[in-house]
Predict the structure.
Amino acid sequence: MPEPLPKWLFLRYAKLWKEKKNQNFDFDEARRLLKEKDDKTVSVILSDLRKHGWLETFLNPEDARKRTYRLKSPHDIVEEIARESHR
């Protein structure tokens, strides 16, 4: 179940969502969209989004060392949180 995001992470999610919606993207594209120069910072952002349930990660079919990412929609996240809170 998705968990609420801390503000700093939600702002980065919003930046990515504005550009990509639910389209796939890779690490380099995330770094470019977030305007981050440090790979470690981008790794933390993507990892935390995944841990909070707001990002899906897939192995790149062409190179298993690389990952492809896709954001969950805000609508789907709110629906999932609402469903779980009524159990």
About this structure: The chain has a mean pLDDT of 94. The longest strand covers residues 55-59. The first helix runs from residue 7 to 20.
